[in-house]
Amino acid sequence: MARRDLGVAILSIEGTNNDEELFVALSALGANPEIVHLKQLEGRDVTREERRRLDDYRVLFLPGGFSAGDYVRAGAIFAARLRASIGVELEEFVRSGRLVGGICNGFQVLTELGLLPGRPGGRLGAPEAALMTNDSGRYECRPTFLAWDGGRFPALEDVPKGTRYLFPSGHGEGKLVLSGDEEAHRRRLEENGQVLFRWVAPDGGPATYPWNPNGSAGNIAGLTNPEGNVFGLMPHPERALDRAQAPDWTRTGSSKGYGDGERFLRAILDYAERQR
User: Which of 76, 144, 188, 257 has a beta carbon 3.0–4.6 Å from 169's, enabling a disulfide?
Assistant: First the structure.
């Protein structure tokens, strides 16, 4: 299905390095994505032709990588630049109901902005969560399984709760830590349907290391905001677009067709198209 006029932006700065992978995946699904540098939205050090407006897009992705070298904390500098330069426009974008997605480093950025777990109304604010150093103390890169938790994310509203996905993980700071009484905070998010994905074992049971690669309490692998239009997850669906990218394709003898990343990304594009 061609979606040439849908309007999908992949926002980058120095250090983001999964923007091309996400661009290839979304293009393969019929979208016409554009990698947009933050300077293009700021109108700084770019020509008039290179200038872009956030309001011209329907979907905004913050890709993985190591934005600004992940100095201070993962995603903190990218978030600070967004807040200072286009914070007002970003709040308006969120309030409009359009989708904002963060993958890995993008998830970290959204927590630093206060958009995840988020406040009602899409307001930026002080962080109420952080993605901290993995319990192992090192970078973890491997195939991981996660299950849809049946929450508020409208793009998956027709998907049965518990549906599993196989996405690769690659992060050193992915342990979700919540502010205040962490257990009470986690229960509120669960009750509000804001848990997007949970890490699970290959048999679908509760995950322990290495299937939970970072040690997040409650096996939380992704969150949404209260309205469900801002979402973040640590593993990489864009790296699971094709069946040949799955770790078991040589054992099954099947390398043709799409992988689990296609199901997830296609659902996002389908939902965005319905909302136009």
Answer: 144
> Which residues are marked as active site?
104, 236, 238
Task: Give the DSSP letter of residue 160.
Answer: P
Helix axes 19-28, 260-274, angle to 10 degrees: 70
> Does residue 100 form part of some domain?
yes
Q: Which amino acid is at 169?
A: S
Give me the tens of pLDDT residue by residue for the chain, a chain 276 residues long. 555 578 999 999 999 999 999 999 999 999 999 999 999 999 989 999 999 999 999 999 999 999 989 888 899 999 999 999 999 999 999 999 999 999 999 999 999 999 999 988 889 999 999 999 999 999 999 999 999 999 999 999 999 999 999 999 999 999 999 999 999 999 999 999 999 999 999 999 999 999 999 999 999 999 999 999 999 999 999 999 988 888 876 676 666 688 999 999 999 999 999 987
Contact 10, 253 (CB under 8 A): no
Residue 3 lies in a domain: no
Global confidence as pTM = 0.94
Residue 134 neighbours by CB distance under 10 Å: 21
Q: b or e along 181-190 (b: 16 or more beta carbons within 10 Å of the residue's beta carbon)?
A: eeeebbeebe
User: Hey, what are 64's tokens?
Assistant: 């993985």
Q: Show the DSSP H helices in the chain as ranges.
A: 19-28, 38-42, 76-95, 105-113, 182-191, 249-252, 260-274
| Structural domain count, the chain | 1
User: Which CATH number covers residue 89?
Assistant: 3.40.50.880
Find, among 165, 218, 221, 228, the residue nearest to 194 by Cα.
228
Domain membership of residue 208 as a residue range: 8-274
Asked, for residue 2, whether it belongs to a domain, the answer is no
